[in-house]
Amino acid sequence: VLILNSILIVHYLKHCQKLTNRLFVMIAVADIVAALGHVLPSVAEILYFKYSKIGIPTFWNLNLTYRLFGLFAYCCSIHFNVILSLLRTIRIVNPFYQPNLLILHVIMISYISLLLSLSAVDVYYFLHRVQVD
Predict the structure, then answer these.
(1) Do 13 and 25 meet the contact criterion of CB atoms below 8 Å apart?
(2) pLDDT values of the chain reduced to their tens digit, one per residue, 133 residues
(3) pTM for the full predicted model
(4) What are the DSSP calls for the chain, one per residue?
(5) Distance (Å, whole) CA 27 – CA 64
(6) Are the C-beta atoms of 28 and 16 separated by less than 8 Å?
(7) Torsion sign across C-alpha atoms 41, 47, 53, 55
(8) Residue 34 contacts by C-beta under 8 Å, 6 or more apart in sequence?
(9) pLDDT at 130
């Protein structure tokens, strides 16, 4: 994942002023962060359950990191992929269509803001559940 997405980022950064190239770069960055976010809890579980090398606080901190970054980046990647596929589909049907970039940016920023607020709520409930148990 890291190598493939790094190649994509290097390739599409050359012409990042185009919307589709910018979306490809944002998808690749989100996929890298999501992959790293998924690897951390797996490493924590192996170290905790098999080798007992880390304690409970470190285990919960790594799971919290996954909830903050991994799930957020995964949802952003899906969102950017949906936008890219919609724009590509519209351009197939109507080749001379130019999207309104202001509306597109407002939609992207509002969705990311919603995801950030939901991530904060998720982390709050995760920490509250850990304290109760």
Answers:
(1) yes
(2) 889 999 999 999 988 888 889 999 999 999 999 998 888 777 777 777 776 666 666 667 777 777 778 888 999 999 999 999 999 999 899 988 888 889 999 999 999 999 989 888 887 887 777 554 4
(3) 0.79
(4) -HHHHHHHHHHHGGGTTSHHHHHHHHHHHHHHHHHHHHHHHHHHHIIIIII--S-HHHHHHHHHHIIIIIHHHHHHHHHHHHHHHHHHHHHHHSTT----HHHHHHHHHHHHHHHHHHHHHHHHHHHHHHHH-
(5) 23
(6) no
(7) positive
(8) 69, 70, 71, 73, 74, 77
(9) 57
Quote the tokens at residue 84: 């890219």
Which pair of structure tokens corresponds to residue 55? 């304690």
Structure tokens at 126: 């995760």
